[in-house]
Structures are given as structure tokens and as C-alpha cells.
Design goal:
mainly alpha; Tetracycline Repressor, domain 2; 72% helix
């Protein structure tokens, strides 16, 4: 009799994404995943092939689509580039303060341990960070066209610096820096384009 799944894959991915996000890839065991999902090891492997690695990749892809991509799309729809920058950096500080579990950002957390992952995960992380930098570059150029950002601001290098500050906020918010310190970093980011 052929194997038939009795669960929604998207629900499993939601569940395991939170396990990976809380514990990290290395510290998460298959037992952690079976316990969280209520599924047997065989069911996970039948549905997701490579088990842990495939579950992680799909979790990270879902996170990237629902978090980074969706947020940048919303921000890009804001008419004023400066307002979009303000909204983003203010939101980063607010999210950091609301993150009582100190989980940070799954994409950034993965980037910090990129050497422990396969090529598919490395490509997904690189693509996500590159798209974030490109978002900043587009916003800077739009701001320059609108007269909101000085022409003297170099779009590509400044975009990469802004991305570095976003990563810094995400990493340092995991318990190292206070709200005041995070706000100072966010303010410094804004001064790069004003």
C-alpha cells in the first residue's frame, strides 16, 4: 500500500521554521522536529526527502518570502524614500525590543553560520542579502531624483553600509545592546542618506 501523507506541508514548515528559528540549525535535532510536528521520522523523510536539511531550506525560504521580501515590497510602495528609510529602521528597533525570546532574524542568523550549510541555503541567503542591498540602492536613487537625498551620496556603497547596519541591529539586538543603543545605530543609518 503506498504511503499517504495526512498533514499539510505548509503547516509542518511553519512549525519547524519556529524550531529552527529558536534553536538554530545545528542545535536542532530530528527528534526536536518530530516532537514539534507530532510526526514520525519516517513521515518527515517521506515528505521532505533529505529530512532536516530540506526542512531547513524550505523554512528559510518561507521566512525570506514572508518576512524580508514582503516587508521590502511594502516599504518600496511608500512614496517618500526618506519615509521608507525611517519606517524600516524604526521598525527594526521596535521588533528587536518586542523579541522577548531574542531570536533575531532567521536569515541573518543563518548568514552568521553560512559555512555549515549546503549550496542551496548559501544561495538563498546571498540572494536575500543582495536583494536587500539593491532595495537600499533603488531607494537612494529614487530619493536623489526626488531631491530628498543629496546627489553626493554614493548609492551602491551606501546601500551596502546600510545593509551592514541592518545586520548589526539584528545581531546586537539579541541581548547585547539596549533600546537606546539600537536607536543610535538606526539614527546613524539615517544620517548616511541625509
Amino acid at each position: 500500500m503506498p504511503w499517504k501523507k495526512s498533514f499539510e506541508e505548509s503547516d509542518v514548515i511553519d512549525t519547524v521554521m519556529n524550531v529552527f528559528w529558536n534553536k538554530g540549525y545545528e542545535a536542532t535535532s530530528i527528534s526536536d522536529l518530530t516532537e514539534a510536528t507530532g510526526l514520525k521520522r519516517g513521515s518527515l523523510y517521506n515528505a521532505f526527502g533529505d529530512g532536516k536539511q530540506e526542512l531547513f531550506f524550505r523554512s528559510l525560504k518561507k521566512y525570506d518570502t514572508e518576512q524580508r521580501s514582503a516587508i521590502l515590497l511594502q516599504l518600496e510602495s511608500i512614496e517618500s524614500p526618506m519615509a521608507a528609510f525611517d519606517t524600516l529602521f524604526d521598525a527594526l528597533v521596535q521588533q528587536a525590543m518586542a523579541d522577548t525570546e531574542k531570536k533575531g532574524c532567521l536569515l541573518v542568523n543563518t548568514a552568521l553560520n553560512i559555512t555549515h550549510h549546503d549550496e542551496a541555503v548559501r544561495k538563498l541567503v546571498t540572494k536575500g542579502l543582495d536583494e536587500f542591498a539593491s532595495f537600499f540602492e533603488r531607494l537612494i536613487k529614487r530619493g536623489q531624483s526626488a531631491g530628498e537625498i543629496p546627489e553626493s551620496v554614493q548609492a551602491r556603497p551606501t546601500a551596502k553600509t546600510l545593509l551592514t547596519l541592518v545586520v548589526g541591529i539584528r545581531v546586537m539586538s539579541r541581548g547585547v545592546l539596549s533600546r537606546t543603543a539600537l536607536r543610535q545605530i538606526a539614527q546613524q543609518a539615517k544620517t548616511l542618506i541625509s
